[in-house]
From TrEMBL:
Residues 9-154 form the Niban 1/2/3 domain. Pfam families: Niban2 (PF26086). It comes from the Eukaryota. InterPro entries: Niban-like (IPR026088), Niban_1/2/3_dom (IPR059060). Transmembrane segments: none annotated. The gene is Fam129a. This is NIBAN protein. Belongs to the Niban family.
Amino acid sequence: ASVSEPVQKCCTENIQPFLTSILEELMGPISSGFTEVRLLFDKEVNEIIQDFQKTNDMTRLKENVDQLMTLPFNSVKMEPCYLKVNLLQELLQDLKSRFKVYHIDSVIQRTQNFMQELMENAVYTFEQLFSPSHQADSAKVATTIEKVKLRVLK
């Protein structure tokens, strides 16, 4: 009871007024990172479509889809996504000194893990909705891939 009032006053005066701006500031890099994941998935699927339109080769299409499944674990391709979130390092340094926010690296690592998980979910869903072996009409394959991609991105 004796601590409650001073703590509430401290939170109301020193923390609560800043929460909205802090959240907005943190969401910038996080949103950028997740947008980059979306763009990477879109780019990779578009490359599969373009390759299939050039070659019309179902075996190669299957290989490309299999390769897409490894995308979440391809650190080189995922790196631009992760770099967007690294901007949190600078933003969180200011918060660390003002609000005693610790474990900055943990926040960044968890965000990057969520990004990888999102990509895993996207490629898994893509694979489930589109199976090259079930495509009888190769003329419609590119259109089907595009529709599946749009469905996954939704």
